[in-house]
Specification:
Blueprint lengths: L2 H23 L3 H11 L3 H22 L19 H17 L4 H9 L3 H19 L2 H10 L16 H9 L6 H19 L8 H22 L1 H11 L16 H12 L9 H19 L11 H20 L6 H6 L5 H26 L5 H11 L14
Helix pairs in contact: 1-5, 1-10, 1-13, 2-3, 2-16, 3-9, 3-10, 4-14, 4-16, 5-6, 5-13, 6-12, 6-14, 8-9, 10-11, 12-13, 16-17
């Protein structure tokens, strides 16, 4: 069996497990933010953070044993160029978009597997925007032209990449390979996360524990698959081909750019040349969700309720497509896979996604109560609730 085929089969197994478990446990990053913002319940947010913690532990172990070098990632999470505008603007756009589209990239796939036709529409829109961002001058003209000049290159001040470990090592004068930097620092970060996850007297449900652990392990095994010996052989073999396959490289799960790759795959009549790691992960995640929906008798066909619902999802799809590529990933691609490398940009993107989603949810909540208020009023009071603006500016009663 060819190495590329083996990689895609293993990827599909991981994607199937992800889709099945996420559907079963209702793991949802947008739902996690909604629960926290609207009812103060952090259970699903903690499940998300548990996935992050497991993934950090996995990448730390793989790098410490020399199995993986996350600096080689096809998506430059640890790039020395600190593209802070991409992380913030892209993250906020994605957070707003996933609220309008009723889910992040991963949740869209889960909903498709559950029979939601609206999510197929969102996937197509987001995929088209991803292609626009990656295969035309759209990104270069609209974003890169002004973002690049204001994004510092850390290498110019002696910091080789933007991982937390490297930054700390540079600040205190230690080598990256020291045990303190490569092992103790990531473990301390995981300890802080675990303290938050299990700090409440209210125990996480079995579903929250299962989903957090499985999502984290799927991301870890994807890193192992593409960054280990098998993955290196896959990359080396591809480099020697007269026409190399696209999107081959060290990587883990992410879903926005693969939405564009999936459109290419289908538009080329399922030509195996366009069957990438991301496409295999995406399609198998849908398949896993679909199988669970069938077995649990939860398959439900759902279409747009009205014109407003249609345009809401369309705008959401546009925003997650542009925002997801701009920020280099979604709630899984940056929020778990990226953060597992402890890249500062990934952490900023995660915070920006949560902020964007929280802001949009607040605006919609105020809109439902104060229907006659202007958008500026709704925005201002939402920002006050999120403690971005001072309480003295409040003009609407807090809800």
């Amino acid at each position: 069996m060819e190495i590329a085929t083996t990689i895609l089969i293993y990827t599909s197994v991981l994607g199937f497990i992800l889709g099945y478990v996420v559907n079963k446990t209702n793991f949802c990053t947008m739902g996690a933010v909604s629960d926290l913002v609207n009812i103060g319940d952090s259970s699903r947010l903690k499940a998300w953070f548990l996935a992050i913690t497991v993934a950090i532990l996995g990448v730390t172990f793989l790098e410490y044993t020399g199995t993986l070098n996350a600096n080689d990632s096809r998506i430059p999470y640890r790039n020395s160029v600190f593209f802070w505008p991409r992380y913030i603007i892209g993250g906020v756009m994605f957070g707003i978009g996933m609220t309008l589209a009723s889910g992040c990239g991963n949740k869209i796939l889960i909903r498709i597997g559950g029979g939601n036709i609206k999510s197929i529409f969102v996937l197509v829109i987001a995929g088209f925007m991803a292609l626009l961002m990656t295969r035309t001058d759209f990104y270069g003209l609209l974003f890169h032209s002004w973002m690049s000049p204001i994004s510092p290159d850390l290498a110019k001040i002696g910091i080789s990449d933007q991982s937390i470990q490297t930054i700390i090592a540079s600040l205190i004068g230690l080598d990256n390979s020291s045990i303190f930097i490569s092992l103790i620092v990531p473990l301390l970060i995981c300890g802080i996360l675990l303290k938050y996850i299990f700090s409440s007297n209210k125990k996480l449900s079995n579903d929250n524990l299962l989903s957090g652990i499985v999502v984290g392990l799927v991301v870890t095994f994807a890193w192992l698959l593409t960054g280990g010996d098998l993955g290196q052989s896959w990359i080396e073999n591809n480099d020697f081909l007269d026409t190399p396959y696209p999107a081959v490289g060290v990587q883990s799960f992410t879903f926005i750019n693969p939405m564009g790759e999936t459109l290419l795959f289908t538009s080329n009549i399922f030509d195996n040349f366009f069957l990438t790691f991301g496409v295999a992960a995406l399609l198998s995640t849908i398949a896993g969700s679909f199988v669970y929906s069938i077995l649990s008798n939860n398959l439900r066909i759902e279409w747009f309720a009205n014109r407003h619902d249609f345009f809401r999802h369309m705008i959401g799809g546009i925003l997650i497509g542009i925002g997801g590529v701009l920020s280099l990933g979604c709630t899984i691609g940056q929020g778990v896979s990226g953060v597992s490398t402890l890249a500062i940009g990934s952490v900023i993107t995660l915070i920006s996604i949560i902020f964007g989603a929280s802001l949009m949810m607040k605006i919609e909540y105020y809109k439902a109560v104060y229907d006659d208020s202007s958008f500026i009023e709704l925005l201002k009071n939402s920002l006050i609730d999120l403690r971005v603006l001072p309480e003295t500016l409040r003009t609407l009663e807090k809800i």
